[in-house]
Amino acid sequence: MTVPAMLRDAGLAALVALALALPVVGIRTVDTGAVLGLDYRFGWVAIAVGIVFGGRLTALLLYDRLPRGPRRIRTKGLAGRSRTLVRYAAVAFIVFAAALPQLPFSDRYVVDTATQVLIYVMLGWGLNVVVGLAGLLDLGYVAFYAVGAYSYALLAKNFGLSFWECLPLAGAFAAFFGILLGFPVLRLRGDYLAIVTLGFGEMIRILLINWTTLTGGPNGLTSIPRPDFFGLAFTRSPAAGETAFHEFFGLAFSTQHRITFLYYLILILALVTGWAVERMRRLPVGRAWEALREDEIACQSLGINRTTTKLTAFAIGASFGGFAGSFFATRQGFISPESFTFIESATILAIVVLGGMGSQVGVVLAATVLVLLPEVFRDLAHYRMMVFGLAMVLIMVWRPTGFVTQRTPTVRLSDFTPDPGAAR
Amino acid sequence: MEYFLQQAINGLTLGAIYGLIAIGYTMVYGIIGMINFAHGEVFMIGSFLTVIFITVLGSLGIHPTFTIIALVLLLVIPFTGVWGWSIERAAYRPLRGSFRLAPLISAIGMSIFLQNLVQFLQGARNKPIPVVVPGGFTLVESDGFPVQVRWLQIVIVVMTVALMIGLTTLIHRTRFGRAQRACEQDMKMAMLLGIDVNRTISATFVLGAGLAGIAGVMVAYYYNVVNFYDGFLAGLKAFTAAVLGGIGSVPGAMLGGLLLGLIEAMWSAYFSIEYKDFAAFSILVLVLIFRPTGILGRPEIEKV
Questions:
Q1: Which of B48, B101, B131, B187 to mutate to test the interface with A (most CBs of A within 10 A)?
Q2: Which of A12, A24, A387 to mutate to test the interface with B (most CBs of B within 10 A)?
């Protein structure tokens, strides 16, 4: 491309940017009593157009220098090159995570934030089974999270069951919902599945809002029982005949105890999830998931039952969502449909996509970044979702494999390079 | 009976709007086999542009008359068209030939981005706009229950019918339509025969976005209030309509839209208004289970 041609191309891009920005950026309607007022910001438009012109020109100039070739998804990545490195990183992460509440700089805020990160890690690992391994795009994952949270809250409140009794039940309920949804729709093509799961997530939320007698409607459920430590409650003054945690261990009462306990609880839950997923990948069903992701028709020809294989992925992913949900309920002590919107599903999906679909380590990285960034840059919290959305697009365009590349099937023939781009 | 008639009229209006948005989904799906998840946001941007233009015209002392309505419509269509073109160019075209879920994930990201961008740029509050087409007439009246038809409802339905006729002609009679149908059947072959596939796909996006823009204008006039999250639900419903009618089929999208609008209106009238979205999504699931090709769709043959 010659320089004038580049200039023309960049000029056209700038023109498009002008058309996009002029009304939407340049003119802002503001509330001024009965009639909307106007606020003109043509300076912003000029900046936007300038950025597009400059960006396009730079991109063209750089692109011209690059060697041309067909775009390929890299299948050999971090995982292929250095599994041991990943293993060391995982061990280091676990040691760090286990030591975190005891470290000098950690206070209530640090532990709370870390708990938040771990919830998303767990959800990410759960969704990774469905999206990353089995290649089924689930846009309603939050529904299973909600099912887990509400089943814990309702069981604990109405039947007095403890957290540990409820946990498997919540997982089972979520898995049941997963099967209930999956059974009819899993025969569908990938994109249909995505939309149906999205619809399902919304249906669950509508149900939670409107079924007031059971779920408390938009007000949600309050005073959900908190978990105890093998029968020892985390309260200052326990009920008659009970012993509190601090009394049993002869410590001074501190609210920090419960927070630390909750942190270790989610750490263990998350680690169990990660371990289970890692093991399952190596089982026949796990291999079938990955094979199904790469080529459905080939799988069918080899006698893999598409429906049951997908259904197991769906149910297992859902049950991890359910576990995380009951932890969420017991940690917050309060849940409402507000916590289970599509944005939440999108956040979890963003974690899986940014982390590199199928990668366990990537999920940890992505969850940490996505939770910590808005915490560190408070001002950015507003633009969090905007950045998520943009990041999802850019990751797909530039690096469809995410932070950590791991599209390598767990088992593979030694000198066979699959090209997922070809097997569409 | 009068109540039923009134609901049918309301449902038809709503259905016409769903149909207009659904056409965008169905055409894009037909040509490149992806769900343009961001399509609902284009519709929402159309609504916002309406608010902006009406307010600008109002501040210039021009008050809504029939000419203004038409003028706003003519202004909004090209702008949403540019949005549609840009979305395709930036988020979908680079992904052709990538793995199967990549365009869909990109589309979801685009949708989230646009929604929050508009919230950031225009604020999170509801934007009110004045009534631009006031009045209506009473169709029949019995037992003190008047069946009313708003002029705007007539405008919406007539416009939709006219657009459908225009679009059908465009697809069946013009060079672009022929290219588009060729790409739909076999993109590689069309390319070999000298059809500019990229341009055809872009044009399809522009067309779909233009129709979504028209729907956005109509919704802004109809409900007199606009919000940045309107696109999400409307997009989902329109997608349901497209599936119901048979995805890939333009008349099917219109039919699906009308049916969905009617079902929703009747459900709200006779069952419960709280569960009307629930009903819409149930329809989506049921159609996909029992008749995945929809009413007018062709069965999809999976090839290796």
A1: B101
A2: A24
Nearest Cβ partner of B105 from A185, A203, A353? A353
Q: How confident is the model at residue B255 (pLDDT cuts 50, 70, 90)?
A: very high
* Residues B118, B49 contacting (CB under 8 angstroms): no
Residues 156-215 of B with CB under 8 A from A: none
If you average pLDDT over every residue of chain A, what do you get?
A: 80
The domain containing residue B232 runs over which residues? Answer: 2-290
CB A56 within 8 A of CB B86: no
User: Is B66 inside any structural domain?
Assistant: yes
Among A173, A145, A175, residue whose Cα is nearest residue A161: A173
Locate the domains of chain A by residue range. Answer: 3-64, 82-398
DSSP element (H, E) containing A67: none
Residue of A nearest to B51 (CA): A29
Is residue B26 less than 8 Å (CB to CB) from chain A? Answer: no
Q: How far is B85 from chain A (nearest CA, A)?
A: 9
| Any domain includes B152 | yes
Q: Look up tokens 């759960």; give the residue.
A: A126
What's the CA gap between A407 and A80, in Å, rounded? 9
Taking residues A268-293, report their average pLDDT. 89
Cβ–Cβ contact B80 with A under 8 A:
no
> Which tokens is A386 given?
């905007």
Q: A53-62, A78-87, A400-409, B157-166: which range is least confident on average?
A: A400-409
- Judging contacts by C-beta atoms under 8 Å, the chain B residues touching residue A189 are 300
Please, what is the average pLDDT of chain B?
Answer: 86
Residues 101-120 of B with CB under 8 A from A: 101-106, 108-118, 120
- CATH number for the domain spanning B39: value is 1.10.3470
B260 belongs to a structural domain: yes
Within 8 A of B109 by CB-CB distance, chain A residues are: 350, 388-393, 395-396
Please give the Cα distance from A96 to A106 (Å, whole number). 12
C-alpha–C-alpha distance, residues B254 and B232, integer Å = 19
Question: Closest Cα of chain B to A107: distance in Å?
Answer: 33
What's the structural domain count of chain B?
A: 1
Please give the ipTM for the structure prediction.
0.85
- For residue B62, the 8-state DSSP code is P
Which residue among B59, B116, B274 places its CB closest to the CB of A38? B59
What CATH class is the domain A82-398?
A: mainly alpha
Find, among A181, A412, A227, the residue nearest to A330 by Cα: A227
Q: Which residue has the tokens 């291999």?
A: A287
Concatenating the DSSP letter of every residue in A81-125 gives: H-HHHHHHHHHHHHHHHHHGGGSTT--HHHHHHHHHHHHHHHHHH
pLDDT single digits (tens) B277-299: 888 888 888 887 787 777 887 76
- pLDDT digit string (tens) for A362-377? 888 888 888 887 777 7
- Say if the Cβ atoms of B82 and A29 lie within 8 Å: no
Quick: pLDDT tens for B90-115: 888 888 877 777 888 889 889 989 99
User: A231-273, pLDDT tens digit by residue?
Assistant: 677 776 666 667 777 777 767 777 777 888 888 889 999 999 9
- Please write the tens of the pLDDT for every residue from A409-424: 555 554 444 554 444 4
Model confidence at A78, pLDDT cuts 50, 70, 90, reads very low
Q: How confident is the model at residue A403 (pLDDT cuts 50, 70, 90)?
A: low
Q: Does B304 map to a domain?
A: no
Distance from CA of A348 to the nearest CA of B (A): 12
pLDDT band of residue A401 (cuts 50, 70, 90) is low
Q: In angstroms, rounded to a whole number, what is the distance separating the alpha carbons of residues A124 and A118?
A: 9
Residue A23 makes CB contacts below 8 A (sequence gap 6+) with B49, B52, B53, B79
d(CA A258, CA A228): 9
